[in-house]
Amino acid sequence: MAALAVAGAGPLLTACGGGGGAGASSREGATAGRALRELLPDHIPSGLVEPDFAGVDGSSPGFTHLPDPLATSVPEPRGSGASFRVMTPLWGTVPRRENDYYTAVNEALGSTLVFDPQDGNTYQEKIGAVLAGSDIPDAVTIPGWNMQGQIRNAVTSRFADLAPYLAGSKVRDYPNLANIPTAAWQYCVFGGALRGLPMPAPVLGDAIFYRRDIVGTGTPPGSADDLLAFGAEYTDARAGRWAFDDLWTGIQKIFGVLPDAPSYWREENGRLVHKIETEEYREALAFARKLHDQKYVHPDAEANKDADAKMRFTGGQVLMYNDGTGGWKGMVSEQGDDFDMQPVDYFFHDGGEPRLWQDPAASIFTFLNKDLPEEKIRELLAAADFAAAPYGTREFMLTYYGVDGVHHELSSGVPEFSEQGLQEAQPATLVFLASPPHTVAFPDEPQLVEDYAGWMARQAPHVSQPLFFGMQVVEPQRYATLYTPFDDLQKDIRRGRKKVSDLEQAVSTWRNSGGDELRDWYQELLESNGSGN
């Protein structure tokens, strides 16, 4: 069991009016430095429940059991009985509009939230239509990956500035919101104002997993050369087994490659350098090409059949693959006791200490309608404070598991959903209003908690924030497709269709087609606002 862990989408590009780079308008730029800090809530850790495995340098704490008794973070309902319409995505069966889960949540809040969950797979079309109209719900959840086109612009024009209620010490009125890390709040600044309520994410959301039950308990690879040796040892095409699936995400981490927009820059001698211009990017491509040339990568992975990657891994067709850590628990539970997948500790390609970049600290946000009066905004924030209650509290259990004895039963300290719970409370809806800090909490899988929390604690000391971390940057539209060709190019290089040396001409074309202009734009942004870290 865990607070909903959502793998970070790519950093958002969203409107901002508080300064900007060359040619910046109210639709371009970013809020950073002092201007950003003044908008953010104070961070006041709750300390209500002690973890079994403490977080290290921002890593997620681990919990192997539910406390007994549960802690209380919201002693009594704080609502006035007002009614609010709440629109969220939902990945799973959408429950009936009237059900016991919603009734129990509203009784605990003292408010009436009328939930309108929509299919998350088609949410972008739905949210675009709603925001283009005049009837905007009181609270609207928008994942970062859905903020495209006019949806992005609507965030600044349709939703309330929450800084008057949450900035600095004002957040003390909402202790569970104050418990959310500052990094997550940084991503909630849109259009020069604190507009979003975040769903916090872990410092690292991806790992390279391997099948320890097959390869044994020896030392896993610790360098690029070790990976090549692993490939040679375990690839046997005749037996239908390959060492690797597509490891490109992990390979970039092993070589210290910068993330994607807007964090694909670093500063060298006072000049910004793009990731595609770095030696690390070239070396990562060359190494990935070696795996292809040695035929250590499963043919279906080479053919972009990414949807089947999990099946190839669980079926033993590949022994190492890259995936988000959020799916680890589900795979372990589905496969049973004999299945042992473990993450490789990251390393630098030469066998030295890894050089990792922090993932976006939030990628799903909820916004409040700007036309709401102050008292209703405060009441919705109180509801969000309830939803953000940390693991081990009564409020967390209601949010994620519904009513004890109705939606779930506790069996040896492990909550098990009833049929009604699966229909009404799983997946949870209230969690989208706001979420607690990310935790690793699986009472039914204590060994997994130790493995997962321990892995993250070992990685976190090596994590740094990229130059524009936490900044909601809007690049000018004229540069929108500038980076797109490199997605196809890196695949062509890695899979033998083009040469590593072909990158040089592509970078030259990028510079002449607007890359140098984009560099100047970011340079002015940096000089005007400072960095995000």
Q: Can you tell me the overall shape?
A: globular
Share of β-strand residues: 15-25%
Q: Which runs of at least 5 residues are low in confidence (pLDDT < 50)?
A: 1-27
Based on secondary structure, the structural category is alpha/beta
| Count of strand segments | 19
The percent of residues in helical segments reads 25-40%
The end-to-end distance, rounded to whole angstroms, is 32 Å
Quickly count the helices. 20
Provide the spatial order of strands within the biggest beta sheet: 3-2-4-15-7
Average pLDDT works out at: 92
Largest sheet: 5 strands, mixed
- Rg over alpha carbons: 23 Å
Protein name: Extracellular solute-binding protein
Family: Belongs to the bacterial solute-binding protein 1 family.
Main location: other
InterPro entries: Bact_solute-bd_prot1, SBP
Structure description:
- Belongs to the bacterial solute-binding protein 1 family.
- InterPro entries: Bact_solute-bd_prot1, SBP.
- It is found in: Cell envelope.
- Keywords: Signal, Transport.
- Residues 1-27 have low confidence and may be disordered.
- The longest helix is centred in the C-terminal third of the chain and has 28 residues, at 502-529.
- Strand 2 (83-90), helix 2 and strand 3 (112-119) form a beta-alpha-beta unit.
- This protein has a five-stranded mixed β-sheet.
- Helix 3 (123-132) crosses helix 4 and helix 10 (248-254) packs across helix 11 (279-293).
- It has helices at 33-37, 100-109, 123-132, 150-158, 163-166, 175-178, 182-186, 212-215, 224-234, 248-254, 279-293, 299-302, 309-314, 328-335, 374-387, 394-401, 419-424, 446-459, 485-494, 502-529, and strands at 62-63, 83-90, 112-119, 139-143, 189-190, 193-194, 196-200, 206-211, 242-244, 265-268, 271-274, 318-324, 341-343, 356-357, 362-368, 408-411, 414-417, 440-441, 463-464.
- The chain is an alpha/beta fold and 533 residues long.
